[in-house]
Amino acid sequence: MNPDLLYLVKANVVLTLFVAAYYGLLRQLTFFQLNRFYLVAAALFAAVYPSVSVPALLPASAASMVAASAWGALPAPPESPPTGPLAVNWQVHLLRGYCLGAGLLVGQLLVQLLSLALVRRRARPAVVLGQPVRLLREAKGSFSFGRSIYVSEAAVADPAALAPELRHEQAHVRQWHTLDVLLAQLTTALAWFNPAVWLWRRAVLENLEYLADRATVQSGLERRAYQYSLLRQQPGRVPAPALAFRFSASELKKRIARLNQPSSPRRQVYRYVLAAPTVMALALGHSGARARPGALLERDRGLPVEALYYLDGQASDRATIQRLAPQDIRSVDWVEGAAAVRRVVATPPFQQAVVVTTNAQAESRVVRELADRADLGSGYHIRALPVEALLPACLAYVAEHYPRARLSGEVREYTKKSTGAAKLQVQLVIGESFFYVYFLPNGEFLRGEEQ
What we know:
By secondary structure, the protein is α+β, with helices and mostly antiparallel strands. Helix content is 47%, strand content 17%.
């Protein structure tokens, strides 16, 4: 799978698990600060998780073998520019659709920020009821964004109604709630296709209102008087700019119910210990399992019936391979195509070969001989290189022989364990298709028979 698409899938699956745990275990609790931390941590963990390696579950030696296992299935590079699609990548269409949606939403966010900047420019500083504010001529009501509270000049004429509004907005400002809002908007823009992210954003904004309501009451304002002030809000008032907090009656019934809800017993904190660590453990455990070489055998645990099987350099069978414990496997090479299988055995009756090496026999002579003869990935050390590492001769060859192709940025150095001979694999892309060309470290092009 395309690395970018795989990242999106992993991140959104984990975020969905966090959201499910929140709505199932935490939403009804009155630990609003813990809920705030949980929701922010969920988004940050989901964003970082796909890039996290799990060394405790995946030793470095195994990691290199997993990367090497793909070598046996690589197509031979063409000797002339391709005339048709070599590997139609349907995933490109998905990524284009995702980028289009994300770009539109990020653009909308930038427009909203610009709108708020214009509102701030038009407002004039003032002090109302002892609170520094910015006065607006428009009838936008009271709202806040960042460290500023905005009040309409018409609202100043009614100090009794304005006082609870100011205290509510002070709570948003004092607790830096705008940071959460910006994170919520950006996360939603970048994961717009995931229904769970919209539920997550709703939970974030809803919880911030609960925090501000509670802080307002704790500031000394009588609870019943504050509830009446909520009821007096007029839904028809001109709304504040997008992204801004406003003292509004949105979901009024739920907010008043939360104000009157008894505090959750402290023993209910165990739910957070159950929710967040469980989701993280599931995610990291899944990464470790997928990273093990043995996981390559679990592609529906359905090893192909019509395939040639080798175990530790010797002919084997499907049933024997299926009985292996994943932790005992050092590497797995999937070999596709009669020409590639012929390097494993001279007269192959199959189009596929699965070559498995265990930890116990990884360094044995027969295993090394098979890896060399069949040119298997497990016979190489593999290292990713930046495109800048390519010599000008490589770039010149690509420009001359593949003028319609572009470098994908994927360059790998394959060093044969037995001889130390190295070659570079360069991925080229034409339209929605990709293919590989190979060079020696000195820049000399390798034709198919020389590889």
